Amino acid sequence: IRDRKYPYYTMKGKDMQEKISFLGKFHFTWKKVLFSLVLLYIAALVIPYIPHKKVKEDFKHSFKAMNFYSPIAGTERIAYINDNTDALKYRLRMIEEAQKEIILSTFDFNDDRAGRELLSSLIHAADRGVSVRLIIDGTSGFLDVRTSPWFQAAASHKNLEIRIYNPINFLKPWKMQARLHDKYMIVDEKMFLLGGRNSNNLFLGDYTSAQNIDRELFVYETTKDEHSSLYQLRSYFENIWALKDSKNFSCRKMTDKVKSCDVKLKKQYDKLAEQYPSTREEWDWEALTLETNKVSLLSNPINTGNKEPQMWYSIHQLLMTGKQATIYTPYIICGKEMYDDLTTLKEKDISVEIITNDVAKGANPWGCTDYLNQKKNIWATGAKVYEYMAPHSCHTKAVMIDDRMTILGSYNLDMRSTYQDTELMLAVDCPELNALIRKEAEHDKTCSKVMENGTYQYGENYKEKKLSVGKKLFYAVLRVVVIPCLLYTSPSPRDA
Questions:
Q1: Which of 29, 233, 248, 399 lies at a 20 to 30 A Cα distance from 6?
Q2: pLDDT tens digits for 443-491?
Q3: What is the rounded distance in angstroms from the CA atom of residue 186 to the CA atom of residue 166?
Q4: Helix 113-127 to helix 84-97 angle, to the nearest 10 degrees?
C-alpha cells in the first residue's frame, strides 16, 4: 500500500534523481506557460490600440470649419448648467415634461441616491406611457447594473428598455478598451441635455462631499429643423442603439428583493415632489435659455475598436479658425500626433491656454502621472497650462475660441478619448455663452499655478495642497510603471 501511494519511497539513486529532475522541468514549463498567457492577454488588451489611425480623406474634405458659424440666429436656444443640483433639477423637469419618448445615454449609472431618483422619475414616465430607452457603457453595466435589483426593477417595466454598450467580456480582451463615454438625455423632439456629467452622486444633486465640478448644455428646439443638433443627436443615438455590440439588459427574475426595489422607486417619486417642488411646475424654457447662431454636434466613430480621431481632428480644425483658445480638461495625455497638432497652433500664432487639475487635486491617477512625466513636453508645444486647485476635482471638458465659439461635452484631451471611446461635443456659436464660461475661466486661473520663465507663478486665490506621503510614494512608483508607454506617447523630435 505504501509503495502504491508513495512511489518515491521505492525508487533508488539515479532513477529518483531523473524523476525529480523531469518533474521540476515540467512544473517550470507550466510557470512559463502561465506567464506567457498573461503576457498574451495583456497584449490582446493593448496592441489593437497601439497603431493610431488617421482620419480618412473623405472626412477631411467633408469637414468645413466655417460651417459651424452662422451670421444669423438659429432655431435652437441653450442654457448653461454649471451646478450639480441644477443639473439634477433639469433632468427631473425634462422627464416630467416628456410625452412620447425619453432617451438617456451615460458612461456611469449608479444605484446611489441620485441614480435612484433618476430611475424613479423614468419609471413614472414609463407608467404614463412614455417610451424610455437607456444605454449604459459596459464597464458600468458590469460593475453597477448587472447585479443591481434597482436596475432589474427598472428593466422589468414594459415601456422601459435598457441596453449595455460593449458588455465586458473577458474572453474578448481586444474589445474591452472601447467604451461609451457619451452623456446626454433627449426628450421628445423638443429638448436635450449634453455634457460630461455621469448619472450618480458625484455629479448630480448635493449628496456627497466628494463632488466633481462639471458643465453641460441644455438645448431647446424652438422650431423643428431636420438639420438641427437635436436631430443629429437622435440619429447618432439610433445608430448606437442598433449596434450588434449594444446588448439588451433584462430582469432575470422578479425576486422579492427586485419587487421591494420597484415599490421603493415608486415611493421615491412622491418624495421628489417635496424635495424639488419646482420640477413639478411649468418652466419657461424661452426665458431660461440664450439665443444661438448655430449649434452643431461633433462625434467620434461608434465602433467598438480602435477609432479614427475624428473628434480631435474636428476640434483642431475649429481651433485653427481663431487667434486665442482656452481649453478645460481634467487631465492631459497626448500622443505624438496630438503634440504635433498643438505645436502647429503655436506656429500659426494661435494662443492656447489649458486649465487642468493640479496633481494634488486630480481624480485620475494615470492622468496625474502622465502630467508629472510629460509636463515639460506639454509646455514645449506653446500651450500655457494652468494647474487648477479647487475644493473639488474639475471634470469639465470645454473649449472657448475667441469670443464666439464654445465646444463643450465629454471629450478629454487624452488618447483614450481620441482613439478608443465614443465622444460627443456641442459646437455652439454664441457670444453670450462664450463670455459666461470665459468669465469663470478667468476666476479659475486665479486659483491656479502656471509655469512662466522657468518658475511657478501662483494665482491670488491658489491654496496649495501638499501631497500626502502615501500619494507621493504612489506616484513615484506609477511614474516608473508607465515608462514603457513614454516612447510611444512622447513628442516627435521637432517638439522635443
A1: 29
A2: 999 999 999 988 999 999 999 877 777 766 766 666 666 655 544 444 4
A3: 22
A4: 10
Q: Where are the beta strands (DSSP E) in 157-243?
A: 160-165, 184-187, 191-195, 212-213, 216-221
Question: At residue 457, what is the residue type?
Answer: Q
Rounded mean pLDDT of 110-123?
A: 97
Nearest-Å Rg of the Cα atoms of the chain is 26
Confidence band for 85, pLDDT divided at 50, 70 and 90: very high
* DSSP H stretches of helix in 128-219: 138-140, 149-155
* Stated pTM of the model: 0.90
- Residue % of the chain over a pLDDT of 70: 89
Classified as helix, coil or strand, 279 is: helix
- The CA distance from 187 to 97, in Å, is 8
Nearest to 185 by CA among 223, 156, 219: 219
Q: Tell me which DSSP letter residue 422 carries.
A: B
pLDDT bucket at 6, cuts 50 / 70 / 90: very low
DSSP secondary structure string, 377-420? HHHHTT-EEEEE--SSEE---EEEETTTEEEEES--EEHHHHHT
Burial environment of residue 424 by CB neighbours within 10 A (0 to 12, 13 to 18, 19 or more): buried
Rounded-to-integer distance, Cα 442 and Cα 461, Å: 12
C-alpha cell at 309: 480621431
* Separation between Cα atoms, residue 27 and residue 461, nearest integer Å: 62
Instruction: Determine the Cα–Cα distance for residues 319 and 352; give it in Å rounded to an integer.
Output: 9
Query: Among 29-43, 116-130, 276-290, 392-406, which stretch is predicted with the lowest mean pLDDT?
Result: 29-43
Q: Which residues of 354-384 are buried (b: 16+ CB within 10 A; e: fewer)?
A: bbbbbbebbbbebbbbbbebbbebbebbbbe
